[in-house]
Design a protein that fits this description.
- The chain is mostly helical.
- The protein has two domains: about 5-260, no CATH class; about 265-340, no CATH class.
- The protein has twelve helices and no strands.
- Helix 4 (about 100-125) packs parallel to helix 8 and helix 11 (about 270-295) packs antiparallel against helix 12 (about 300-335).
């Protein structure tokens, strides 16, 4: 039975995520055919666009296969809003519109929507959180819409207007912190079924908070005087780690733990196969950069560089893959999460 208000939210996710996929695909020629932009910026935006396609696709599947629940749709709407903000930000930059008033309004509005929907999802998934369950006066007060949403709007405006600054990072951290607290309260106050559903989203929120702090600290330590190569390696690594943590946790919750619907759960062998593909993609991406540095910095031949990198990856790939699979099994078993059909 479809819950009240679920029907229009379902179609909203389907339409918005479909449009998001089209816009994210459109980003790739914009990024790499633009006359301006550093390699670091292009890599950032490519990672953002690729991650957007993955997030939009997962949200579309949730709405299509499990769109009969407002709790499920609150998660799908949140990630659709977040990915849409990132995707539109890339388009605005490469179309040369970042300093125009309409672009600023669009960027700020989508940031507000993404932040608000993420906090709403943390309050409503897998069931609505009450003041009695929170048991903290401050966070219970923030459950009231009249107080919470003006607060979120103010933080979102700071996050967009002062983008790239420590103030922006602090605003983002507060928003993530609120959601982390609500996910944690749901986890602590719920039964085994609730904990199974909320675990991966709690892990994702914690990872996002930690990476935000680390990124802000690294930027502060490096400053503007650090070598461009160092800034490129560190920046792209942290940027990739941020999106990778979101995608891994979100995918694990939906396709492995059955947090959204058993109909979306896939077999462990498929999960491990996708894990292998993901690790191969990461290794291949890293290999391109390391190969370039070895050839141009150490003045070695292409053959020697390829052999050296291939040997190193060959020795490290299997242990990393084995550890990741073991980690998935251990986390699932510890929290009593046995995916249907696994």
């Amino acid at each position: 039975m479809i819950e009240r208000n679920a029907a229009w939210q379902r179609w909203l996710v389907l339409v918005a995520s479909t449009a998001g996929i089209v816009l994210a695909v459109y980003c790739f020629p914009l990024i790499w055919h633009a006359a301006e932009g550093t390699l670091r910026e292009r890599l950032y935006d490519t990672i953002s666009a690729a991650s957007g396609i993955a997030l939009f696709s997962i949200c579309w599947l949730i709405a299509w296969r499990a769109g009969d629940s407002v709790a499920n749709l609150s998660i799908a709407l949140a990630f659709t809003g977040i990915a849409l903000n990132d995707t539109l930000a890339v388009i605005i930059i490469y179309r040369g519109l970042e300093h125009t008033l309409p672009a600023t309004i669009v960027d700020t509005t989508t940031y507000i929507v993404g932040a608000a929907l993420f906090i709403r999802a943390s309050q409503n998934f897998p069931r609505r959180l009450t003041a009695e369950q929170v048991r903290n006066r401050v966070f219970a007060i923030l459950l009231r819409p009249a107080i919470l949403w003006p607060f979120v709007i103010a933080l979102s405006v700071l996050g967009t207007v002062l983008s790239g600054t420590l103030v922006s990072a602090a605003a983002r951290l507060i928003i993530i912190g609120l959601s982390t607290t609500y996910f944690y309260k749901s986890y602590r106050s719920g039964d085994i079924e609730v904990r199974r559903k909320v675990l991966w989203f709690l892990a994702m929120a914690i990872a996002a908070a930690v990476i935000t702090v680390v990124t802000a600290t690294v930027k502060l330590v490096l400053g503007d005087g650090a070598p461009e190569t160092l800034r490129l390696v560190v920046g792209v690594s942290l940027y990739s780690l941020n999106y990778l943590s979101v995608l891994v946790c979100f995918s694990a919750a939906v396709f492995y733990a059955g947090a959204i619907s058993p109909s979306l759960v896939i077999r462990k062998t498929v999960v491990y196969g996708l894990t292998t593909a993901l690790l191969l993609f990461v290794f291949a991406t890293v290999e391109v950069f390391i190969h370039h540095q070895l050839v141009h910095v150490l003045h070695v031949t292409d053959t020697f560089a390829s052999s050296l990198i291939g040997g190193a990856f060959g020795l490290t790939f299997h242990p990393v893959k084995h550890y990741f699979e073991h980690l998935l099994q251990r986390v699932q078993g510890r929290h009593g999460q046995h995916a249907p059909g696994a």
